[in-house]
Amino acid sequence: MHVACRVPDLGTDTMLPGNETTEMSLPPLPAGDYPFACGMNMVHGLLRVEGETDSATKPDDGTASTGTAIPAGTPRMSAADALLAERQEAEERRQEIRHTGMLVAIGTVLTLPVFVPMMLMLVSHSLVPSWLMNPWLQAILITPVMFYCGAPIHRVGWPALWHRSPDMNSLVALGTTAAYLYSIALCFVSELMPEGSREPYFESVGVVITLVLVGRLLEAKAREGTGKAVQSLIKLRPRVAHILDVGTPLAKDLAAGKASGDGWLDPAQSQDIDIDRVKTGDLLVIRAGERIPLDGVVLAGEASVDESMITGESVLARRGVGEPLTGATIMQQGNVVMKVTRTGEDTVLSQIIALVARAQATKAPVQRLADRIARVFVPAVIIAALWTGAIWITFGPQPKLAHALVTAVSVLIIACPCALGLATPLSVTAATGLGATNGVLVTSARALEQARDIRTVVFDKTGTITVGAIDDDADYAKPSYTKDSVKPGSKEAIAALRAAGIRTVMLSGDKAEVAERVAAEVGIDTVIAQVSPTARPTG
Prior knowledge:
By secondary structure, this protein is α+β, with helices and mostly antiparallel strands. It has 14 helices and 17 strands. The strands form 4 sheets. Strands 6, 7, 8, 9, 10, 11 and 12 form a 7-stranded antiparallel sheet that branches. Helix 14 links the parallel strand 16 (503-507) and strand 17 (526-528). It is elongated. This is Copper-transporting ATPase. Residues 1-24, 53-74 are annotated as: Disordered.
């Protein structure tokens, strides 16, 4: 058996022998995070390569290491390459969603004519035409569900079981296979089975496989939404920067703080270069209306900067000599020369992108617990089924073999992991999906699971408690003239939290007086103002 192994950023997309240690020669890796995927265990994660060591960080759901020394200063992935890689990943996610959606549709269409009559039979036999209960008809409908729709589950579950590393796919594959084979046997030799054990389980096969696929579809859509968020962040990076030649007298005077006038505004004094060629210490010219390329500090000029994509604040920030500038924010008014202080993955924007990307690779503790249980549970179920069959074939009534078969298969069917295999991933994906539609980004499955222990809720201000736009009716004569209107329902939501004994805190990138006014208006307990995005808790 061979397994698909993919590390897209390294151009690795190959088939490797399953359950064997295989060494691969990789090129020297630039520092950064590399998404990887294992086709056997359906594991996705991030391989982290540090800039000055050969270490690799072990993610929550997988392990990888390169064993390659990474020299400091190795060039990192360019913005264009990062966007291209993310677009390729997005296309793969769309293909996965289309394929899984097709499997769900087929499974639903073929399962309903079997499942609905079985449920109606529990109400009244007169409600169901006899031909709908024909086991041969049910077999014809469910066989494609078992072998076509269930193929992604069986392709992973059975090899994992064979190599003694069973997971949730193994549990589903084992239970549905037992139910299907038993039902097929009834079609041929029902008279050999004991009375009361002649009902097929075709509807269980269809329902379990279809619901597992629904869970995968929801999970794929959730990953697609997060992928779109990463793409939108990457697109904020400008592609070109206006750089001053550091060897010119003007650039030397600017660096020394001795320059006067605005000669640097002359386009002839600067040249356009790709942003990935900019280094720390370079001098860049940013003109009104342009997006700031990288993080830096103002050397000359003044400007009003829209930092809403970083701080969430709708009020323009005034930036003068010596004050910091954040990459990807917009220079609304004014012109400046800045000295680059951070490039590549050290910038604020790159750190935010990395935070979102790492969230995609997390797995809820309960999901990891379910997988650990599966490794013990599957062998235990098989032993229990064999032991049950052995007891019945030894001490049971005649026909002993038929009774032993029925009881052994019953153990496997009952053990089919509806709770572990379906409820756990479905609850996580349903909760994150509902949160996303209501503007709540859950950064990790662990954070969602631990929400039951919440005693303090931390809010952002702009766009969360407030509308996020300047109120045209504000009193401009007051110091806090940029009044940001409180959202409808904010007071009621915070009051409900306080009534439940939960402490409320507001973190804001805005000035203290503005943040405190909003907090007093809605009833927030604690206010912490002028906080950068990367310093805020992320779950």
